[in-house]
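Question thread 4412

I'm putting together a teaching handout and wanted feedback from people who do this every day. The idea is simple: show students a protein as raw sequence, then show them the structure tokens that encode its fold, then repeat with a second protein so they can compare. Below is the first pair exactly as I plan to print it.
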Amino acid sequence: MSNLTDLPKIPQRSPLYTFYSDRLRSYLTTSYMTPLPLKDQIRALQELKLVKSIRRKLKKYKLILRETDKSGVLHIGRIIDYERKAAEYRQKTGAYEELTSNPFNDIICNVTHLLNQLKMMKKISEWQRSKLIPIREKTELAYKYFLPKSHKKDTPLRPIVNTIHTATKKISQFLDKLIRPLFDRFVRQTTIVDGADLLDRLEKYIEKG
């Protein structure tokens, strides 16, 4: 790998340097320093007032506003109904339980300890360990939330688990890079990636008769 610090340099007096620096300055000025037209300022204030009004009404009447599962529209429901359906889902599936204490510190310590052990056992390098170690300030607990299925009777809820900033996220990404090529190699022929891939496979199937 080439040294990333040894980058090509353009002399500051070069016409090319001046050209691109002027364009960059103009772009930044236009994007971030040009005042909004009066019409847009008025509209922004009106929208802010509307948002505050909606928040007050939701709080006053104990309502909850959520984006629906598939249609992408907004759905308003009673908080008590959401809590009841969420509790019923946990009880029915037995897949989740409500935490009574915060396990964040324990998770950080356990992941860090395991990575240090792997480093000591020479299973991973120091570079890999440092890349996989969770950063406390940027790490969050995984959490579950629900999206309403407004297209179904009684508006059931679909559970979504958010793990984007969890302590094991970097490890998951690292393993995916290692395993993904093997997975794609052996199961690609039986895997449909998306709608376009499905249509392409159907066309090839029809061509073969």
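The second pair follows. I'd like the answer to focus on this one:
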Amino acid sequence: MEFELERDAFAEAIAWTAKGLPARPVVPVTAGVVLEVTEGTMIVSGFDFEVLNRIEVPVTDKSAGRVLVSGRLLAEIARALPPKDVRVAVEGNRLAVRCGSVRFNLPLLHIEDYPAVPDLPATSGKARGDVFATAVAQVTVAASRDETLPMLTGVRMEIGSEALTLAATDRYRLAERHIPWTPTGTVPSTAVIVPAKTLADVAKSLGSASEVVLSMGDADDAGFLGFSAGGRQTLTRLLDGEFVKFAS
């Protein structure tokens, strides 16, 4: 695997993906990021069984490939690179990162031990990025931080034919917002519970885009909800349980 790209694009992609990695992973390989290069695109992804972050960046590729390296180390290296084009190549059992006169080597991790990554479900619809981000910020503050009641640490998202309804409560306060959205085709009305922390992170990282695309799974992958914008994708596992009744 060998490719080249601009320093800022490389650093931003690695930093965004690595930020979502677990600090103390139960499975060590989930502290890594997967770099995949194919047909002029670098795909960087990180997955901890609960959340998948994935970003695509155009590159000049000389050979395709897929490797796993430490996310924390690669993010530190990317941040320290000078403002010149970056060349990345697999050399034996190491990943070589060159930028100007600077060179770093990272050991490759065993990618065969990496967990299977779920696919992003089909697109369900889209909402304006700024409206979505504002609504999420206003609602997530009311979510509970008490892990003994997991469903209250999430945001209830009700998907209708013309609007998304977001609601969160910690039993002492309630926040609710209705925002317009545009379904893709016929989307059945349903409600899911999204982890509040993940939803807040999604709003911060994708909310500056003109549109945020929502992807809802069917019967085979109904346990996940996807968000995408500007080449970035986040897929989160939904919370189980029934949300408290808050409206008649």
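Top answer:
Good format. For the second protein you could add a caption like this: The chain has a mean pLDDT of 93. The chain is about 20% helix and 45% strand.
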